[in-house]
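We emphasize that the prediction below concerns an isolated chain of 118 residues; any contacts that depend on oligomerization or on bound cofactors are therefore not represented. The input was used exactly as deposited, without trimming of termini.
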Amino acid sequence: MSDVAWKLVDQAEWTAARAAGVYAGSAVDLADGYIHMSGADQLAETARRHYAGRNALVLVTVDLAGLGDDLKWEASRGGALFPHLYAPLPVAAATGERALSVDADGLMRFDDGATGWP
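Result of the prediction step, given as a token string:
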């Protein structure tokens, strides 16, 4: 398992989380009972499947080392293990943020002009 994961977050939700010090999760996260995150090899497919056509997003890089037992690696999508956080995400665990949108075809387009992943 990696010590780093990524979370795509609505920009307004991330701004609110930064003010509060924690991110409680998206509507989907709250409904599922955990915060969905992706590994490096999973992120592009997550963007394509769940965020195509969305603007005003932030890609948050998360240091998993301090999340303790609330972090579980669980099977999804054909048995691949995904990092799931069963607690609010402390903003302090975020080691990077990049603004982006995901085009209609599911390609991540970063505000700095970069496309794709990584």
